Amino acid sequence: MKLSPDHKLAGILCPVFALRTATDLGTGDTAAVKELIQWCARHGFRLLQLLPINETGPDNSPYNAISALALDPTTIATTPADLPDLLPADFERIAPPAVRGAVRTGPVRYRQVKALKRELLWAAFQRGGHRPELKSFAKANPWLVNYTLYRALLDENNGRDDWESWPTEHQAPAAAELALASNAEFQQRRQFYVYVQWVAHEQWQDVRRSADTHGVVLMGDILYGRTLAHKLKLYVY
Question: Which of 52, 138, 147, 167 could form a cystine bridge with 62, CB 3.0-4.6 A?
């Protein structure tokens, strides 16, 4: 889409985490973005700009991503309706009404929300982790090799992102690969993060299709335009 001062357009700038739906888990997600796209279309807004949605570090700032390519798991809609590999029984066990009510109250409770969504995604992974689509997704996205290694190493080191405090054998990719090659649990966690990124990719592609259907252009943030914008074919100024 080409912008011109001769053709005025109105748009909305909104961070995903600020959106809410009837089924959210305390923060905005892809289902909420699709609802906003429909709202934009109804009210004549042709542009929807989002803040970066890359995976964030411990401070949860959208401008402090741990990866230039990985999408933040908190943006994934994790109800059984949005996540086919998640059984309704698992959803109710992990996120009963009391838990859902607690995370939906007040500001975003990032620590609780991240833990809750991770548990839901892990339950879904137990059923969908061997999908054939994951192999083709990983092959098409070679960056996942280093990303999943780093992401699993974060878990191995209690979420500390100051990698210089990690054991020496964890501080370099080649050494870490060698040290943990036979660790089945560690390798399973790496596959889990492939699954999470595949789910995120599929849901955000669905967001893009919804935007196209409703005639709304998605605009990326200038600081992450060359990463997410490339993946979703967003317009970047």
Answer: 52
Q: At what angle do helices 184-214 and 110-128 cross, to 10 degrees?
A: 100
- For residue 31, give the 3-state DSSP assignment: helix
Helix (H) or strand (E) holding 188: helix 184-214
- pTM of the full predicted structure? 0.90
Q: What is the DSSP letter of 110?
A: H
Sheet with 47-49, side-by-side order of all strands: 11-13, 47-49, 217-219
Using DSSP, state whether 58 is helix, strand or coil.
coil
List of E strands, the chain: 11-13, 47-49, 217-219
pLDDT at 225: 46
Mean pLDDT by 10 residues, the chain (237 residues): 76 93 95 97 94 90 89 97 96 97 92 96 96 96 96 93 92 95 96 98 97 92 53 45
Domains, the chain, ordered by start: 11-232 (3.20.20.80)
- Long-range contacts of 143-149, Cβ-Cβ distance < 8 Å, separation of 24 or more: 143/67, 143/69, 144/193, 144/194, 144/197, 146/173, 147/67, 147/69, 147/70, 147/193, 147/197, 148/189, 148/190, 148/191, 148/193, 148/194, 149/173, 149/176, 149/177, 149/190
Structure confidence at residue 236 (pLDDT):
38
* pLDDT at site 134: 97
